[in-house]
Amino acid sequence: MSQGTLYDKVWEKHKVTELPNGQDQLFIGLHLVHEVTSPQAFHMLEERGHEVAFPERTFATTDHIVPTTPEGRERPLNDPEAEEMLSALEENVDENGITFFGLESGKQGITHVVAPELGLSQPGMTVACGDSHTATHGAFGSIGVGIGTSQIRDVLSTGCIAAEKQNVRRVEVNGELGEGVYAKDIILKIIQELGVDGGVGHVYEYGGSAVRDLDMEGRLAICNMSIEGGARAGYINPDETTYEYLKGREYVPEGEEFEELKQYWESIRSDEDAEYDDVVEIDADGIAPMVTWGINPGQVIEIDDPIPAPEEFEARTDREAAEKALEHMDHSPGDTMEGYDVDVAFLGTCTNGRVKDFEVAATVLEGRQVDPDVRALAVPGSESVRKECERRGIDQTFIEAGFQWRQAGCSMCLAMNDDSLEGDEVCASSSNRNFIGRQGSKDGRTVLMSPAMVAAAAVEGEVVDVRDHFDTELPSGTNRAEEVAD
Ligand SMILES: CC(C)[C@H](C(=O)O)[C@@H](O)C(=O)O
Ligand code: SF4
């Protein structure tokens, strides 16, 4: 039984009661809604004649199905199913008085990019969304949980869900990341070591000097992929980096109220002597850029390591998964990923679609050209990210290099819009899932990596080690430069 962790404290503060079935009734502080998973829940609500209990705690955006070109966004949308989902959401938010960051709002984007940048996600909250990547918000020191349709209905009508408390595993990442190595590489390393099911029954508390050193964008990328490691949620204790990021954002109170909030935020940090159900240590110094070789995020290696042979895995299921992966990806064991031909480069998503991600990739692209055989897509995670990149001229670096510069959405992460792989194309992708068919083509092949590595792959037309191929000094992705010694 763990004591004194942030998870325990935040859970206790939001627990309404214990239910007869042993689960807890948990109050949800922030409910995020998107067009794919909400229509049915609103419908269920209507059927029962219920109203939305806390419209002021509910915020909606549209992300999965939206086209990413200005022409594509003209209404009605070309795809009737997409139009139906979007219109349903528009009607539902209208009828229920819910704030909606729609296509015309200038604030539209991926749920897990929009809520953090507006300051909606704050430490010590419970955040729920009908989306498996809701753990992203844990980067602020909140409990973010992905929920299904009937739970969306429950949150809409009562502000609560029935949930089971999980065990807490501390994932302690100490040391310093080398140049060209980023938060994305840390989380891929964690998933490599603990497995895609390693987190089942747990939430992950990420800590250690390498995590403390990360900027908020990096922390968001790590928490985002908790679900890929099987964890129900993932979080990082809030600190000065968190508070500095939040200060001045649209939904964050100012002045005295901010100071009061900060006291609450400090109080919910895990205690020094908190007990964890499990502690795992990872050495950041040793991490190289990570790339997936297979068809789940755990089938991942360091860029210069050989692709494993099925016999190297102990469990039969892992051996079978490796065989399937080798066949789908057309690899032979012992090969490295370096030199694997790439047809598409995709930069964006709720993992790596933030300003810092584009900034890092732009450093790699500066003065260089995308390989003529590569289709390269830059899709900002939100319209605010797009505008900020344009204000800084980052978009020009992408465009001059030969990238298509798009509007915000999930895009080719899961191809619910027109952005899709074709045939057996290989995509160097900054996203979080490499399942077969994920990017819109059943034969398509996804290689997950950091934004710097995606940019390098776009230029070279193949998977490369960003550290070897470029002499530019790469931005670090940490807050060390700005940090005042403490
Ligand atoms: C469409 C949505 C429900 C889904 C999720 O739950 O995560 C999507 O965002 C994904 O990444 O696969
Ligand atoms: S960007 Fe990808 S992972 Fe994130 S919410 Fe959209 S589809 Fe899901």
UniProtKB/TrEMBL annotation:
<dbReference type="InterPro" id="IPR033941">
    <property type="entry name" value="IPMI_cat"/>
</dbReference>
<dbReference type="GO" id="GO:0046872">
    <property type="term" value="F:metal ion binding"/>
</dbReference>
<dbReference type="InterPro" id="IPR036008">
    <property type="entry name" value="Aconitase_4Fe-4S_dom"/>
</dbReference>
<dbReference type="GO" id="GO:0051539">
    <property type="term" value="F:4 iron, 4 sulfur cluster binding"/>
</dbReference>
<feature type="binding site">
    <location>
        <position position="350"/>
    </location>
    <ligand>
        <name>[4Fe-4S] cluster</name>
    </ligand>
</feature>
<comment type="function">
    <text>Catalyzes the isomerization between 2-isopropylmalate and 3-isopropylmalate, via the formation of 2-isopropylmaleate.</text>
</comment>
<feature type="domain" description="Aconitase/3-isopropylmalate dehydratase large subunit alpha/beta/alpha">
    <location>
        <begin position="8"/>
        <end position="461"/>
    </location>
</feature>
<dbReference type="InterPro" id="IPR001030">
    <property type="entry name" value="Acoase/IPM_deHydtase_lsu_aba"/>
</dbReference>
<comment type="pathway">
    <text>Amino-acid biosynthesis; L-leucine biosynthesis; L-leucine from 3-methyl-2-oxobutanoate: step 2/4.</text>
</comment>
<keyword id="KW-0479">Metal-binding</keyword>
<keyword id="KW-0028">Amino-acid biosynthesis</keyword>
<keyword id="KW-0100">Branched-chain amino acid biosynthesis</keyword>
<feature type="binding site">
    <location>
        <position position="413"/>
    </location>
    <ligand>
        <name>[4Fe-4S] cluster</name>
    </ligand>
</feature>
<dbReference type="InterPro" id="IPR015931">
    <property type="entry name" value="Acnase/IPM_dHydase_lsu_aba_1/3"/>
</dbReference>
<feature type="binding site">
    <location>
        <position position="410"/>
    </location>
    <ligand>
        <name>[4Fe-4S] cluster</name>
    </ligand>
</feature>
<keyword id="KW-0432">Leucine biosynthesis</keyword>
<dbReference type="InterPro" id="IPR004430">
    <property type="entry name" value="3-IsopropMal_deHydase_lsu"/>
</dbReference>
<keyword id="KW-0408">Iron</keyword>
<dbReference type="InterPro" id="IPR018136">
    <property type="entry name" value="Aconitase_4Fe-4S_BS"/>
</dbReference>
<dbReference type="Pfam" id="PF00330">
    <property type="entry name" value="Aconitase"/>
</dbReference>
<keyword id="KW-0004">4Fe-4S</keyword>
<dbReference type="GO" id="GO:0009098">
    <property type="term" value="P:L-leucine biosynthetic process"/>
</dbReference>
<protein>
    <recommendedName>
        <fullName>3-isopropylmalate dehydratase large subunit</fullName>
        <ecNumber>4.2.1.33</ecNumber>
    </recommendedName>
</protein>
<keyword id="KW-0411">Iron-sulfur</keyword>
<dbReference type="GO" id="GO:0003861">
    <property type="term" value="F:3-isopropylmalate dehydratase activity"/>
</dbReference>
<keyword id="KW-0456">Lyase</keyword>
<comment type="similarity">
    <text>Belongs to the aconitase/IPM isomerase family. LeuC type 1 subfamily.</text>
</comment>
<comment type="subunit">
    <text>Heterodimer of LeuC and LeuD.</text>
</comment>
<dbReference type="InterPro" id="IPR050067">
    <property type="entry name" value="IPM_dehydratase_rel_enz"/>
</dbReference>
